[in-house]
Amino acid sequence: MSENYTALYEQHKKAGASFTDFGGWQMPLKYESELAEHHAVRNAAGLFDLSHMGEVWVTGPDAAAFLDYALAGKLSAVAVGKAKYSLICQEDGGIIDDLISYRRGEDKYLVVPNAGNAAVVAAALAERAVSGKEGGFDVTVEDVSAETSLIAVQGPNAEAILLTLVPAEQHVLVTELKYYAAVEVRITVNGTDHDLLLARTGYTGEDGFEIYVPNEDAAGLWEALLETGAGHGLIPAGLACRDSLRLEAGMPLYGNELSREGNPYAAGLGPVVSLAKESDFIGKVALSELKAAGAGSTTGRKLVGLKGPGRRAGRGHYPVLKDGNVVGEVTSGQPSPTLGYPVAMAYVDIEFTEPGTALDIDLRGKAEPFEVVALPFYKRQK
User: Fold this and answer.
1) In the CATH scheme, what is the code of domain 301-375?
2) Is CATH 3.30.70.1400 the classification given to domain 56-139+263-299?
3) pLDDT in tens, 88-129
């Protein structure tokens, strides 16, 4: 059993959660029914504990220039108050992690890496701050993951739920908050006001919010959200439904679709890489060469969606076949609760990646038909 517990562990135990180790943390896998939790997020709202994620502040006069160097995207172009999805890569173009960076001021960014990579990313940023240029960048890299909790409200009723805890004069901050943007709002918990960072981001394919809160205030916020959200269909949701939701939405998971051995172009993340930015950045040479060589477009393998007509689903590492020959490998797969048929993401040889291509997945010795489809499998109605 891992030794890392979020500040909400006791709340999960009280709610009857089943736990699993994820990234070295004991996290709720499900409470009662992962299927009910999945449908709650699609149709009403789900409450997630994401406190295993990392939070790293990058501040100082060189913050924008430094992140342009450390990450594959152009973070200097992000407006204050907005956020950007990006990658931190190795020199050879391999992906160390995918992450979101929030620009909270001209010289202030919050970088949010994935759970299992939080310490690795924080260390890489600290090292790159020193070695990136002669004399180093004038920045401070501060890993605040240990004292920060992250709570997500996801689903079509998420906004209405948040408005019940935010004072009327700040309602407009919530209702006008755009996707991939963040704002500080006042949330009242047990009669006490807290100024918290609210982001309109998520990993479910639905509208929703992620709230950054000090550990000591996390339990009170969690309980307040459950209480006020009950009338809007809000229920606590675990990692099992988070995985089925993100798969339907075609969102990659580090360790499945993304890895140090892969590259952004094969993963369909070429637009995330800013080769045009003036500054040099870690992995730029290798990524330029990969793009020029046609990675993910004319050579190698490419990440695709697969849907099946039957009931049996492909799972991670199952071979993908064409005429009995292995042409790829499943990275994630399961029956889609929303769509009613099995879906999977897989890396497939480039010549078999056109939507409509008929392929098979080797389901433990039996070839099951699947068809290449465009991602995402599911897109919410706006």
Assistant:
1) 2.40.30.110
2) yes
3) 999 999 999 999 999 999 999 999 999 999 999 999 999 999
